[in-house]
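Please decode residue identities from the backbone states below.
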């Protein structure tokens, strides 16, 4: 029996975000590739004029990463479920036990700081990227 691309896509739609992230990691390991976006590198000899103002963009979206769980794993699982609406108990448990893991992406700096404080109050170690 042959599986079509559409069948695979329909199956992937039924998976949770955490399950998909795990699948991506497994595929990266199996095929020896990375799903990370390629980074543009400036060509040699390309120089910026010294008198030109530096065009730096301020980061507006941040990612909250749980790096270590700490002693209050159950409370951290509950807090992660509060931070990520719609996250099931099993998915939250898998996320916490699989640290380091991304908890939430594309959030404001204020939200990231608030969630970081909440998790750190329970003994977890958290990074904002």
């Amino acid at each position: 029996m042959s599986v079509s691309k559409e069948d695979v896509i329909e199956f992937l739609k039924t998976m949770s975000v955490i399950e998909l992230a795990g699948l991506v990691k497994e595929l990266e390991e199996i095929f020896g590739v990375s799903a990370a976006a390629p980074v543009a590198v400036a060509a040699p000899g390309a120089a910026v004029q010294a008198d030109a103002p530096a065009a730096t963009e301020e980061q507006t979206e941040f990612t909250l990463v749980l790096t270590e769980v700490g002693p209050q794993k159950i409370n951290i699982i509950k807090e992660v479920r509060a931070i990520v609406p719609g996250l099931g108990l099993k998915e939250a448990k898998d996320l916490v036990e699989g640290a380091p893991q991304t908890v939430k992406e594309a959030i404001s700096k204020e939200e990231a700081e608030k969630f970081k404080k909440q998790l750190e109050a329970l003994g977890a170690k958290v990074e904002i990227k």
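Observation: The mean pLDDT is 79.
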